[in-house]
Amino acid sequence: MLNSKIQADIDHPAKLYVSDFDENGQTECIPVCYKTDGKAYPVNLHDDIIKQLPVLKKRFLRYDAYAGKGIEEILTAEQLEKASVLTVNQMQTCVFYNKGKGQFDMKPLPVRAQFSPVFGILVTDINHDGISDLFLGGNFYGLKPEIGRYDANYGVTYMGNRNHGFDYLPPKQSGLFVTGEVRDVAVITTKSGKTIIVARNNDALQLFKGN
């Protein structure tokens, strides 16, 4: 997904520092990402990081004291060194083509797959042409207001083509229109044909009958 305040690539990875930074017996998670100035900043705003690490309150009494501070100016070198670090350098939803002998070719899906995080991917032949198609569902609402919730996925359908690529098919044509936080997509086959089942977080299932 590229439609996010948090961006990452090989040279500017997003990171999650995990440790008991203030040694109070509780583990804290501090997300960090780079900005356009090439400096890594904590994602957390002033009040949020103070709630996590009250020990920082004396150092950053004012908002302007915290503003513009990189992660290395907020946590000590020792704290950073002791932390477990989870790193992300690829934000796009991709497909992997098996080249054989343990080799895979990674290709990002077209832009509409990058509007929101994807949690459910169905690989099936929707139009019965012998080529695998994709249906993607996602979204995530549990975010702070300053980040904004990810809700731009209404079900993304890609029709596979003979050039090993994918062509976007709008919901109006595919008949696959989904709202909510999708967490899984599956297909069942009965005597009457295929039914696509979409599972949504804290919501009813959505069922789509195939032709």
Strand content: 35-45%
Name the strands of the widest sheet in spatial order.
Answer: 3-2-1-4
- Mean pLDDT across all residues, rounded? 94
Shape: elongated
The radius of gyration computed from the alpha-carbon positions, rounded to a whole number of angstroms, is 21 Å
Please report the number of helical segments. Answer: 5
SSE ordering: EEEHHHHEEEEEEEHEEE
Number of strands: 13
Helical residues, percent: 10-25%
Largest sheet, in brief, is: 4 strands, antiparallel
Through-space gap between termini: 31 Å
Please identify the structural class as seen in this structure.
Answer: mainly beta
Whole-number count of domains:
2
Which parts are unreliable, with pLDDT below 50 for 5 consecutive residues or more?
A: none
